């Protein structure tokens, strides 16, 4: 399906231009920046204009108000969103984010990325995403539960195991997924495990889901770095974001012998040129909610030599591998020229904006894109959904083997497309996903099909 660069150009047709006048308002900021990646990839694929027209806009966006009774008796109303970007290849699939900066634009962008991620990994899902504008750290556990159940009350008609399936994202976790599945089941008057993934094991979760995003990223790193003759002991790594994905990946890398020299969370970071003891830092963070450069023996932790650094300083450290694993838009035109890492593996969604992409490409930095690197999470979510439907649960080894097989296959394919066409890895990943999406969209009928006599 991939065309040579010179053959390309057939992107916008008169029929699409006519449709455009009736189309929803052009996507704004973050989503429009995200769609620039699509435009770049379009030059290399044979895909019907109808399919392209469909992929430029989210299929459905829901904006809800969630009233929550607070512990002091007052009522607060939170804004919530659920966006199904495209469901041609299967039900929508995507996480739910709790963060004070959540907006419809952000959720639409995240749903866009999910669409391409699921296609890239060849999962039978479309792309979706949800979010609530809230600082969950300000809520008690009871308030958080009422908010999570309230969110499901408002979006229940918009989701379902065969319609749109939720999962964890920033500041949501397995407990919250359990509440959401439970509330949806109550509304539907039947147990509906498949409506949410990332649930606690005892409520139908999958082995390996907690570590899946990190495990997938680890498999991609281990597939790619040997191509550059890099071995773990000589490879220095900095990880921004020490949450579910970042901390677990830092630990996997540490255990595999990589030298993780810097980590950070929302409050800032730590750096030690000799390398950090990641399991000790994780243990300390679990107990104190703070990142400290420590070395622990059993429950006794001692501070080791280190520097305190800001998140901005972490991004520009002189390391081999940089792993943004926090939020989007961390590397922009303001700091891209200062990046010294040669390899960036995007664990967060959208940590590099499109302007920064171009600067990094010019500098010769290899950027392995989010839709490939962090796809381990949705892959094991898919396994969880399959297990829920079959009522037959897999062992951890089986989950990890299947994940490794799937993600390394797609990493190799993406690498080969990049090499074959001489494009950057992000464009290669979009080309790969776009080909699969285009095939599915075209299977429903194209202009050529309807106007031909045959
Ligand atoms: P999380 O809530 O567990 O952790 C987020 C981490 O980022 C925390 O350590 C937080 O302190 C830190 N952080 C927040 N703001 C920051 C800032 N401004 N600078 C530096 N650090 C900051 O979330 P997570 O699940 O680990 O998700 C992290 C990223 O990975 C997100 O972009 C998410 O969309 C992406 N992702 C997660 C999964 C998953 O399964 N968890 C799957 C795919 C993608």
Q: Can you characterise this structure?
A:
There is one protein chain. It contains 16 helices and 14 strands. It has a seven-stranded mixed beta sheet with strand order 11-8-7-6-12-13-14, sandwiched between helices. The N terminus is likely disordered. The site of nicotinamide-adenine-dinucleotide has 24 residues, from helix 8 and strand 7.
Main beta sheet strand tally, sense and closure: 7 strands, mixed
What structural class do you assign from the helix and strand content?
A: alpha/beta
Query: What is the number of helical segments per DSSP (H or I, 4+ residues)?
Result: 16
Rg is: 22 Å
Ligands bound here? nicotinamide-adenine-dinucleotide
Principal-axis shape: globular
Total strand count, please? Answer: 14
Which regions are unreliable across 5 or more consecutive residues at pLDDT < 50? 1-27
Give helix % range.
Answer: 40-55%
Strand content: 15-25%
Strand arrangement, major sheet? 11-8-7-6-12-13-14
From the N-terminal CA to the C-terminal CA, the straight-line distance is 23 Å
Mean pLDDT: 91
Order of helices and strands: HHHEEEHEHEHHEHEEHEEEHEEHEHHHHH
